[in-house]
Amino acid sequence: MRLRKIPIDFLWEGLELSGDIYNDRGSVLLLKRGEVLTQDRLDKLSKFERGGYITTSEETYQEILNSGKAPRAALQRVYEEAVGYTALKNDVDSIFSVTRNASEINMEATETVTKDIFTKIKVLDFPKIFQCIDAPREMDENLQRHSLNVAFTNGVIGQWLKLPEPMIKKLVCAGLVHDIGKTKIPEEILNAPRRLTEEEFEIIKAHPVYSYELLWDNVDEDIRLAARHHHERLDGKGYPDQIAGDEISLLARITAISDVYDAMISQRSYKESMIPFDVLEKFKKGEFPGLDERLVDLFVKNMVANYRDVKVQMSDGRIGVVRYIPPNDLNHPIINCNHDVSQTDDKWYCVCIANQTGK
Ligand SMILES: [Fe+2]
């Protein structure tokens, strides 16, 4: 019998096992079919299997996965492993820690990750990429997730703009390194679990210049400038150089949009995460002044088109499919849920993007 590996945190108290449970290697029978899991048994499993995995039959594995009861964070992790997002996240994490310790960017590693992302953008479907981008995240992985997400979003926008491949690669790379200057900001300010004081915000505002400086002279100047200018605004009200209009490159303008999108989607210490439809409505209403309006229009239009038919988790716990997003009411999409088609409102709304492969 073929056994499947499954993380222990997929199991829950009260689960009646439809199949036997074995250890990580499948060599020792731990629990028999028909047994009901108690918290005590779960604790023992975790203690016994330090790697955090057990094995079981394909049928039991599928049953657990499709029960809708496995913790969402655990499901998301497995999904991200399948898409290859986890490996990329770890690569980005190591690029950032090397930079933090050595004050130098490993460009070879950065270029390898850039190529990987570029390849994934070409072969992966939009919902798969955005299920990873839009996922709730832990505070301590914010910087690497954000960098990776901006790299992906930059690349996707580059494709929508039908830019030549070398340009899309530059966009992906710029997304990866745009915030690398944050490695020079003290962590107690960067991860402060509250709103920043004006003084602290001034310190944070130095990060685009640090990013620019950390990228050596031999790194493409377009990439360096995109990093330096991703907080500049067309009205001249951005930072650090307060340049305006045409002085801001296309790469920097695109990176600014990806940056704002991911910042809105993510949960920060001082704000809750938002769902994509709410963020897109804000973009459309012009709530982020100084962005390139033509690019914002293109971004919103394509995001809306691509979110059609994507699976979402609803506030009542059910899984629905986005059927239509009204152009003048982007944050109230029409959802098909168990053959019942309704528009979302304050009482019934989308909580997050659901696993695209099953429940
Ligand atoms: Fe930034």
From TrEMBL:
<dbReference type="InterPro" id="IPR003607">
    <property type="entry name" value="HD/PDEase_dom"/>
</dbReference>
<protein>
    <submittedName>
        <fullName>HD-GYP domain-containing protein</fullName>
    </submittedName>
</protein>
<feature type="domain" description="HD">
    <location>
        <begin position="143"/>
        <end position="264"/>
    </location>
</feature>
<dbReference type="InterPro" id="IPR037522">
    <property type="entry name" value="HD_GYP_dom"/>
</dbReference>
<dbReference type="InterPro" id="IPR006674">
    <property type="entry name" value="HD_domain"/>
</dbReference>
<dbReference type="Pfam" id="PF13487">
    <property type="entry name" value="HD_5"/>
</dbReference>
<feature type="domain" description="HD-GYP">
    <location>
        <begin position="121"/>
        <end position="315"/>
    </location>
</feature>
